Amino acid sequence: MEKEKINQIPVGLMDWIIKTLNSGVHPEAIVDAMIREGYDARLSYTTLFRIVGNKPIETPGVQAPYEYEQPAIAKKGSKIPTSDREIKVLSIVEQPFIMHMDNFLSYEECDELIELSKDRLKPSTVIDHKTGEEKAATGRTSKGMSFIIGENQFIKKIENRIAELTEFPQENGEGLQVLNYGIGEEYKSHFDYFPSNKVDPAKGGQRVGTFLIYLNEVESGGETVFPKAGVSIVPKKGSAVYFQYGNSKGQVDRMSLHSSIPVAEGEKWVATKWIRHGNIYQQ
Ligand SMILES: O=C(O)CCC(=O)C(=O)O
Ligand SMILES: [Fe+2]
C-alpha cells in the first residue's frame, strides 16, 4: 500500500524552514527534503512559495553585493539649511552610509520630546528576524513609545526637518519612536530592515534608512556602535545620526548592523525615525 502523504505543516516545521532558508539553503532543496520526508509535494511547494513570496529565489550565500547609491542628504555640503534650523555635518562614512550631524534639535526641543514621551513608555519589543513577528525583547532592554505620524505641531516640525534633510517624504516615515535606556540597558546588534518575507509593498515596502536623534548627554556608555564599520557614535544632546541601508533595487546592506551598548552611568534618551522606500499610509 502506498504510504499516505502528510497534508499539514506541523508547528515546528515552519520555524525549521525559515531557519534553514536563512542559513542559505536553496528553497528547492528544502522542498526536496520535505517530499522525501513524506510531505505532499504540492503542499511543500506552496509553503515555500508563501515564504519566499513567489519571487525569484535569493539565498544569502549567493546574493548580489549591495550596490551603494549616494543618499540625497550627502550632497548638501557641511552646513545644511532647513526651513527653521541649520544642521551641521560632523562626519560621513560612505560604506555603510553613516552620517553624523550636530544641532539637529535645540536643547529645548530635546527636553520637550522627553517630556511628551515619558509617561507613555512601555518595555520595547524587537522584530524576530526569523519569523518577522514582534516579540518581547531579550536583546532590547530599553523602554519606548511611538508618536503617531503628525501627532501634533511639535512632532510635525521635527518630521518636516527630517524630510527636508533626507528628501524622503514624511509619508515614508514610521511614527517617531522615543527610547529610554537605564543603567545596564542596551539594544543588542541588529538590522533595522525587515526580513525579506515581511516586506509589505502596500505599506511602503522595505525600510531604507534610520534617523536617530540623541536627546540627552549620557554620563558613560550608551554609544551607538556599527561593529562592521568600526564606527561608534557618542550620544550628544541635539545631535543625530542618519544611516542608510536600502537602495532603489530593494537590496539591503548587512554592513549596517548596529547596537546600543549598555548605559554605564546616567540614562540615555533617543528618538528614532525609521524610513521606508515608499508611502506607508497610501490607501
Ligand atoms: O539607541 C540607539 O543608539 C540605537 C537605536 C536603534 O538601533 C533603533 O532604534 O533602531
Ligand atoms: Fe536600530
What sequence of helices (H) and strands (E) makes up the elements? HHHEEEHEEEEHEEEEEEEEEE
Helix content: 10-25%
- Count, helices: 5
Distinct small molecules: 2-oxoglutaric acid, fe (ii) ion
The CATH topology assignment of the largest domain is: Jelly Rolls
How is the biggest beta sheet arranged? 9 strands, antiparallel
| CATH class bucket of the largest domain | Mainly Beta
Strand content: 25-35%
CATH superfamily of the largest domain: q2cbj1_9rhob like domain
> Low-confidence segments, ≥5 residues, pLDDT <50?
none
CATH architecture type of the largest domain: Sandwich
Number of strands: 17
Q: Give me the side-by-side strand order of the main sheet.
A: 1-2-3-14-10-17-8-7-4
Structural class: alpha+beta
Rounded Rg: 21 Å
Question: Would you tell me the overall average pLDDT?
Answer: 88
Domains, number: 2
Terminal residue distance:
54 Å
- The general outline is elongated
